[in-house]
Amino acid sequence: MLFSPQIDYVLKSVQSNDVHFVRFWFTDLLGSLKSFAVTSSEVESAFEEGMGFDGSSIVGFTRIEESDMLAYPDPSTFQILPWRPQINSVARMFCDIRTPEGDPFEGDPRHALKRMLAKAAALGYTMNVGPELEFFYFRDAETTVPLDNGSNFDLTPLDVASDIRRDTVLSLEHMGIPVEYSHHEAAPSQHEIDLRYDEALSMADAVMTYRLVVKEVAMKHNAYATFMPKPLANQYGNGMHVHQSLSTGDGVNAFFDADDPQGCNLSAIAKSYIAGILKYAPEFTAVTNQFVNSYKRLVPGFAAPVYVTWARRNRSALVRVPHYRPGKETATRIEVRSPDPSCNPYLVFAVMLGAGLAGIEEGLELPPEFTSNAYALSDAELKSRGVTMLPNNLGDAIERFEGSALMREVLGEHIHSFFVRNKREEWSAYCAHISEWELRRYLSVL
Question: What residues contact residue 51 under an 8 Å CB cut-off, 6+ apart?
Answer without folding.
Answer: 24, 36, 38, 42, 70, 71, 73
